[in-house]
Specification:
The structure holds 2 protein chains of 2 kinds. Chain A is an alpha+beta fold. Chain A has 10 helices and 10 strands. Classes of the chains: A alpha+beta, B mainly alpha. The structure holds copper (II) ion (CU) (2 copies).
């Protein structure tokens, strides 16, 4: 019996230590910001204190298990209290705790120092994507975009080889400059999400109706990945966070070009498009924004998420269809996409739904229709 | 004996169980009800375990293999709800039913009819909750913590059944607690003062007060949800002026004491088993009682440590960090006392003792990770990752669950009058011990490496540890069938057990013959120094 147990324990220890060497990440990441490094050393401090206490406590326990057994013919002692000992093991742990609380308090106070920022980004959680809105000094929006999971379904469904950044990649990352204090305003549109970038040592819940703030100064350029960490429904596991820190000059150039494309984009709202143009654009928008619920084949997941194929709405009047997509259906997963998509995207995705999966409404939806319906905005 | 015959004379139907199935439906006997609770919780444990294995099968490899995300979320939610409310809590109530009257020297529980009702509510509550899994739109999928608005505005239609089921469970727990308090305060044998009560009785007395204090809070939370869903209120709906964060405050004001509800009776159990097999009195009886009382008190002022990331003001964060760290002190006292009890004893290692020692070691590990989680700035990194999953499974599986299993082995001879098979018991222990650690230890690593909890699919760097964890879960899960076999085998063909089934056992229950008579003590026993713990 003993031999077998020893063997089993031995094998477990061997496999675990083999994995230890193999796996690239076993411990918390130290990260790149001053805060994350401080958090890391705090983590290591507590970890080692716990290990030390564990070694002593379990050492005593296992010595006792080894030495004080009936089979060794020992007589049981009959003592049952000792005021000195009991006082000691109340007071000493309290002191150790104070020793831990002190540096923890210091770090926490630093983390709460959100003022004096160089720029501000609003981070808004949606079922199941993040929206990043760059704000100017007066907190007005300059431009914004959504950051969606970029991993193809075929990888998730095991039909294609998974790449290194599986589930940790997005179509457009949040870009921030290095060495500047960036303030993040965290909020959500529908349910609670949580925005976490481990390498920055920051995580905050994105709560509808509440704006939380976080900050980071990232010293090194690079790509930093994280995930949503609050259960937010079906695709909670599929809304990663990717932040690209660019050197300051590079960031400024990118920022300027984003602002000017923004102007071009707003101008295109006045254009009219052909069936082919709408279909091409619409398919793209559908794949990114709608297929999570209505599925790529338009069949949906009834009853929670209705099919688009053969849908009465998609075959009915154009304006009703547009209105439903713009305003959403309150109290369901069907969001008010008027807040997320621009008129061109809205018109084309609706047009696409009306002319795909066997639907054939035979009309054209244009950005102007959207603008009319939303009251000229 | 002559008294029994005499009593038989004027009240005969009270003296043996009724025949047939109706015995179980109508019974008001504490032992029958205890048995019902225990088998019910075992059934729930197996169902909850199957859901856990679905989860672990899906997580065996990256990618979606067996289930879709929406079903996965139903599995995690129902696994949590069933294990907490269906397996652990009813098991402790079952043990309370069996043991408290025998340990305080009473014939039965104080309120036997209510006792019957509080059990029979449960199968309906869980029948209703589990049936939602087969409804259109699926069952609860918002996590066992059911944060609004995911559980209100965005919930499947079946959430109303879930709310009703929670109400029923709450009613059952409150009735059970009232009964336990009434029994302990009124029915102790003469001479058993409060500070001479066995620790299991003490821990349950305090637990029962916790339950009465927090179950109504949970009921309030689900009622507000019900109103938000059906009557257009906006308690938790930001668009209507409500506050989703308030839901979390209310939930965790219930939830943190709930965590202790699931561990305090375990402390009691271990405080019986260790002295018995060390053949030595419990070390520091009164400090054990004070430690339990302080843990219970502290459990009301630490709730927001589950919410460090919701964005509280700095002062709030600091308060909850300090108060949470403080819990380590009384918890440490208990662990030190158990080890001091073992120290210089004459130990033997029968199955209950093995589970109890594993409890002390592994629960302490859960305590360490708990202390780490209390440190707010680092909690930001751990929160809602597998590190938390590892933490609470360490305190609940090798913690609460192992204590329940230990209790079953320990008192089984008293209940059935028969001895279980020791080598099978040891086999069950070692399989469980190894399985538990292979399952949950690697989860510390995947959590630190950044794997969020409640996800059906994960990035590639978490693959090795998840595979290991899944293997462990299957070992652990299937080794519980050994337990079932041992139980049935003991009941059907175990060797007869003595009244005092263990050499070092102390306490009034061991003065009764095995199996214990249907009405434990028809006459108050004498409480002698030899049979008290302190
Ligand atoms: Cu999420
Ligand atoms: Cu808690």
């Amino acid at each position: 019996m003993k031999k077998i147990i020893l063997q089993v324990v031995g094998t477990v220890i061997l496999t675990v230590s083999a994995l230890w060497v193999q796996a690239d990440e076993l411990n918390l990441r130290a990260g790149v910001t001053e805060i994350s490094k401080e958090v890391y050393s705090l983590h290591m401090l507590i970890l080692w204190i716990c290990v030390a206490i564990g070694v002593v406590v379990f050492g005593v326990l296992f010595y006792s298990v080894y030495a004080h057994r009936k089979s060794k013919g020992v007589e049981a002692a009959q003592f049952h209290h000792s005021t000195k000992l009991e006082l000691a093991w109340t007071i000493v742990p309290t002191l150790i705790l104070v020793g831990m609380a002190y540096p923890a308090t210091e770090t926490l106070i630093k983390m709460y120092d959100t003022g004096g920022e160089d720029m501000t980004v609003e981070v808004r959680g949606y079922q199941w994507k993040w929206q990043y809105k760059y704000l100017d000094e007066d907190y007005n929006r300059t431009f914004s975009f959504f950051s969606n999971l970029a991993t193809p379904r075929s990888q998730i469904n095991n039909r294609q080889v998974k790449t290194d950044t599986y589930l940790l990649e997005v179509d457009e990352p949040l870009r921030i400059p290095t060495n500047r204090k960036v303030r993040f305003l965290i909020t959500a549109e529908d349910v609670i999400h949580a925005w976490w970038v481990p390498d920055f040592g920051i995580k905050r819940d994105a709560v509808p109706g509440v704006v939380n703030d976080l900050w980071a100064i990232v010293p090194e350029p690079g790509i930093y990945r994280g995930q949503c960490t609050e259960l937010c429904g079906k695709d909670h596991g599929f809304m990663p966070i990717v932040v690209e820190a660019l050197p300051e000059a590079e960031f400024d150039a990118w920022y300027a070009s984003r602002v000017s494309t923004e102007v071009v984009r707003t101008e295109s709202f006045d254009d009219t498009f052909s069936h082919e143009q709408l279909m091409a654009k619409g398919e793209e928008v559908y794949g990114t924004y709608c297929s999570a619920c209505h599925l790529a084949n338009g069949q949906g997941i009834p009853p929670a998420f209705p099919a688009i194929a053969g849908s009465a709405v998609a075959m009915g009047p154009k304006d009703d269809h547009l209105r439903l997509v713009i305003e959403g259906v309150a109290g369901t997963g069907m969001q008010a996409f008027g807040k997320q998509l621009d008129p061109v995207e809205l018109a084309s995705v609706v047009h696409f739904q009306r002319h795909s999966f066997g639907n054939d409404a035979g009309d054209l939806s244009q950005p102007a229709d959207v603008i009319n319906l939303s009251g000229g905005q | 004996m002559s008294e029994v015959i005499h009593a038989d004379h004027h009240d005969d139907h009270h003296h043996g169980p009724e025949k047939g199935l109706l015995r179980w439906l109508y019974t008001t006997n504490h032992k029958d009800i205890g048995t019902l609770y225990l088998w019910f919780s075992f059934a729930m444990f197996l169902i909850g375990g199957v859901l856990a294995l679905v989860i672990r099968a899906e997580l065996f490899q990256p990618g979606l293999q067996f289930v879709q995300p929406e079903f996965f979320n139903q599995m995690t939610t129902n696994h949590g709800l069933i294990m907490v409310f269906g397996a652990i809590m009813p098991a402790f109530v079952g043990l309370a039913n069996w043991l408290i009257p025998m340990q305080v020297g009473a014939p039965d529980m104080a309120l036997p009819r209510m006792n019957n009702l509080s059990f029979w509510i449960l199968p309906f509550a869980f029948g209703m909750m589990i049936s939602t899994l087969f409804m259109e739109g699926g069952g609860p999928n918002f996590g066992w913590t059911f944060y609004a608005p995911l559980s209100t505005t965005y919930a499947p239609d079946s959430v109303t059944y879930f709310i009703f089921a929670v109400h029923l469970m709450g009613a059952s727990s409150i009735m059970g607690s009232i009964n336990i308090i009434a029994t302990i305060l009124n029915m102790r044998a003469p001479g058993m003062t409060l500070m001479k009560m066995p620790l299991f009785v003490w821990t349950w007395l305090i637990t029962a007060y916790l339950l009465i204090a927090v179950m109504p809070v949970l009921a309030g939370a689900v009622t507000m949800m019900l109103f938000d869903i059906h009557f257009d209120t906006s308690f938790f709906n930001a668009a209507g002026g409500g506050d989703p964060v308030m839901f979390q405050h209310i939930f965790w004001f219930f939830g943190h004491p709930e965590v202790y509800i699931m561990i305090l009776p375990a402390f009691g159990i271990v405080s019986h088993i260790i002295p018995t097999f060390a053949r030595k009195p419990l070390f520091g009886y009164s400090s054990m009682v004070y430690a339990v009382a302080s843990i219970a008190f502290l459990s009301f002022i630490v709730w927001a440590h589950h919410m460090f990331t919701v964005g509280m003001p700095l002062a709030g964060q600091l308060f909850f960090m300090y108060s949470t760290m403080l819990i380590a002190v009384p918890t440490g006292v208990k662990v030190f006392n158990w080890i001091a009890t073992m120290w210089r004893g004459a130990m033997t290692f029968e199955t209950p003792m093995l589970f109890a020692i594993a409890f002390v070691v592994l629960f302490t590990m859960g305590g360490f990770s708990g202390l780490m989680l209390a440190i707010t700035p680092v909690d930001y990194q751990y929160h809602d990752t597998y590190f938390v999953v590892a933490h609470f499974h360490y305190v609940l599986v090798p913690g609460a669950l192992f204590s329940i299993i230990a209790a079953v082995y320990f008192w089984l001879p008293k209940w059935t009058g028969k001895m279980y098979d020791e080598s099978l018991g040891k086999l069950h222990f070692w399989l469980s011990f190894i399985g538990v650690n292979i399952t949950f230890f690697p989860q510390h690593f995947s959590g630190l490496a950044g794997m969020p909890r409640r996800i059906p699919d994960y990035a590639l760097q978490f693959a090795d540890f998840n595979m290991l964890s899944s293997i462990g879960a299957f070992i652990f899960g299937f080794s519980q069938l050994v337990f079932l076999y041992i139980l049935i085998n003991t009941i059907r063909s175990g060797k007869p057990a003595e009244g005092r089934s263990w050499e070092g056992a102390k306490g009034l229950e061991w003065t009764l013959p095995s199996p214990a008579p249907y009405h434990s003590f028809t006459h108050p026993p004498k409480v002698t120094e030899a049979e008290i713990q302190g």
